[in-house]
Amino acid sequence: MASVVSELEGTLLNDPDPFSYFMLVAFEASGMVRFGLLLLLWPVIWLLNAFGKEDVGLKVMTFVAMAAVPESEIRSVARAVLPKFFMDDLNMSAWRVLSLHGKRVVVTKMPRVMVERFAKEHLQADEVIGSELIVNRFGYATGLTKGDNKYFVDNVKKFFDGEQPTLGLRRPSSSSLVLSLCKEELHPPFTNLQEHDNQHHLFPHPVIFHDGRLVKRPTPSTALLILLWIPFGVILAIIRITIGIVFPLQMMPYVSRIFGGKIIVKGKPPRSPSGGSTGLLFVCTHRTLMDPVILSTVLGRRIPALTYSISRLSEILSPIPTVRLTRVREVDAQKIKQKLSKGDLIVCPEGTTCREPFLLRFSPLFAELTDRIVPVAMNYRVGFFHATTARGWKGMDPIFFFMNPRPIYEVTFLNQLPVEATCSAGKSPYDVANYVQRILAATLGFECTNFTRKDKYRVLAGNDGTVSYTSLLDQIRKVVSTFKPFIQF
Predict the structure, then answer these.
(1) Looking at beta carbons, which pairs linking 303-308 to residues 24 or more positions away fall under 8 Å?
(2) Where is the Phospholipid/glycerol acyltransferase domain (predicted)?
């Protein structure tokens, strides 16, 4: 069986410098202080690399980003945050070469814990070889690692059980001894393998779920820009939220432009049914917590939104009424019917947000309760910060959304479903839900999936996504306990 050993940095990934990935670990696993400290040390790390001391620079990055951080938190970032940024930087030509081989080994300069999840789940690597992070008996990373060139070579030999790997993929400036074990070596660009490209069209497993607040990979220049923007972003977010609470919804599309926001409306918004009939049910894709608020702003009236697991702070800040569901089917059905009898209602049947161009499975409950269904395709664009989280505090979601310099929302109204496409004509709720999912996905250029909210939270947070509502004092204690090891460090 043909086998391949490939370096990650500068080969499978276009960028040979792992600095930005350590910055992600610093930001997501620890916070802004460590993020800023690592950026402050970047000139020192750059000089070390320039003078051929890459190993020393790597140890500095590892120590600053990970020392006194719980190993479980580092693993969480490696599972939920890093794969998205690895995938964005993936060299597809190198991946196609890798995919042609049966046995695949990925070698990385970074600690193995940072890379293993991505390489095995998305690149289908059989083994990942990197330095091992040293963890103390309390479960905290020391910031130190073990593993040198000899350690890497021994592990490759052990994996192949004495056989010589067929092909080694490396960056041109690599000094790794591992690739010398291979029968043949190649380095990017892989311009002489186009005949294989034409015959082999495999793609790596896509990243559908990912977490973290940062939209862009924090290279030194991007990280500096983010740090400089944050004070202004916080002030801007406070102003925008205050305006949203104080001003009438009808004025928001005009006022938001003054502070950098923009709403793009496509299609024709429907009129509310005349008196005596039940309200319209707006069925929306779920991109952020702001979806119902933006839709109400476009329609110019405060339409109640059905919610599952949003924070109390988000409910307090919401300029529209919220209707909390229980996830008990009979109870929720009765509550939705009651609200529809009084007027329009907004529902996001995915049950949770998804950042990538995919739609999660639609719950069929909405289709059982009314035939006045208006599909609405929602999408958004932001520059610095994501407005959703699975691992963090959801109460910060609207604040991070409004911290972006120029948040843009797109709202596309589709025609109300004809009666013959609803349950009133004998369609099953599942058929109606799947049909609405398909037409919304086609409108946005997204793909339909069968994943659910539970699938998302199991991947990103290791739970089922249920929010536990604790007192303010308990939340403060949780924050303090999170930062306790950093204070000691």
Answers:
(1) 303/343, 303/344, 303/345, 303/346, 304/339, 304/343, 304/344, 304/345, 304/346, 305/345, 305/346, 305/347, 306/336, 306/339, 306/345, 306/346, 306/347, 306/348, 308/351, 308/352, 308/453
(2) 280-381
261-268: average pLDDT: 92
Exposed e or buried b per residue across 287-325, where buried means at least 16 C-beta atoms within 10 angstroms of its C-beta: bbbbbbbbbbbbbeebbbbbbbbbbebbeebbbbebbeb
- Residue ranges in 347-452 assigned as alpha helix (H): 365-369, 397-402, 429-444
Query: Which stretches within 18-143 are classed as H helix?
Result: 19-29, 32-40, 42-50, 54-66, 71-80, 82-88, 92-99, 112-121
pLDDT tier, 187 (very low <50, low <70, confident <90, very high otherwise):
confident
**Nearest Cα to 289, choosing from 304, 311, 269, 267?**
311
* pLDDT band at 149; cut points 50, 70, 90: confident
| Whether pLDDT at 63 is above 70 | yes
